[in-house]
Amino acid sequence: MNPIFSSAELRRITEAIKESKTEIETTFDLGRTTTTLNLNKKGVIIKKKTILVPSLELNDKCCYVLLKNKLEKVQFFSPQTNLFYKLIPTSFRPIMQCSGTSMHKKEFVERIDHDKINGVVLDAGTGLGYTAIAAAAKAQQVITVECDDNVTRLAEFNPYSAELFSLPNIERKQGNIVELIKEFPDRSFDIIIFDAGTPKSSDAFFSLGNYQQAHRVLKRNGYLYHYLPKHHLKRGRDFGRETIDRMIKAGFRLVERKMKESYVVMVK
User: Fold this and answer.
1) Which tens digit of pLDDT belongs to each residue from 89-134?
2) For 8-67, what is each residue's pLDDT tens digit?
């Protein structure tokens, strides 16, 4: 994986260069490890080459990856989806931002990490892979599905997504879960994790038909963990309640709703 820095870390490096320091303890995997890098008047030395540190605006909050000896922002526009993708650094794992909407799901990932996720797991969608990686720590197998290859491209730059591509018990699939789920036999999974984008961008993900398929492929007494975006909440709409009602109609029973954390746990 290519070296990658947060904008805050690059500011630290810039200040060290201004102070004529010859080395700095830093991280080039967004805090997963630390290392000492040499400095000179022009920039930071990586693999015996001087890398210029870009001039950053005060409000710049992004990740910068080293590509062809140049630090580039981890962001891009896709004409296919008409969305702008960006990797945003935090004090821990970076988050994905799509056209200004931050996909911040820390509490949901922590719940998956905390609970006993055993057996065979279906995870949709993959995103940066955090739920798949958390589930894979205990599960026998995790099948994770992502419909947007731009998201996968973003994950390939992210050090915290590395296990998504390396763990032997994670199987990645590219495609629309609404269609792919129809290919699985009845009662294939012990656990299902649903984590889509916004209702507008997720097509039939939140449909009754998709929940009926989820109920079909889930084993008896199996759990469905479902992230629910606060769609139109400020307009007085309870999108979460609407979604729960559809899942109940599909045959699920509500175990727990976490309003603040934006997710529910259902059981078959």
Assistant:
1) 999 999 999 998 888 789 999 999 999 899 999 999 999 999 999 9
2) 999 999 999 999 999 999 999 999 999 999 999 999 999 999 999 999 988 899 999 999
Q: Is the peptide bond before 209 cis (omega within 30 degrees of 0)?
A: no
Q: Is 189 domain-assigned?
A: yes
Residue 192 lies inside a defined structural domain of this protein? yes
29 contacts 2 by C-beta, under 8 angstroms: no
110 and 66 part of one domain: no
For residue 150, the enclosing domain spans 103-267
Residues 6+ apart with CB under 8 A from 99: 83, 84
Task: Answer for the pair 170, 164: CB distance below 8 angstroms, yes or no.
Answer: yes
Number of domain units in the chain: 2
Q: State the first-to-last Cα distance of the chain, in angstroms, to the nearest integer.
A: 40
Q: Which residues pair with 45 in a beta bridge?
A: 38, 50
Q: In what order do the strands lie in the sheet with 70-73?
A: 4-6, 63-67, 70-73
Asked if residue 26 lies in contact with residue 35, where contact means CB atoms within 8 angstroms, the answer is yes
**Which two tokens mark 121?**
């797991």
Residue 66: inside a domain:
yes
Q: Taking the model in full, what pTM does it have?
A: 0.93
Distances (CA, A) of 82 to 77, 98, 99, 110, 142: 7, 10, 9, 31, 30
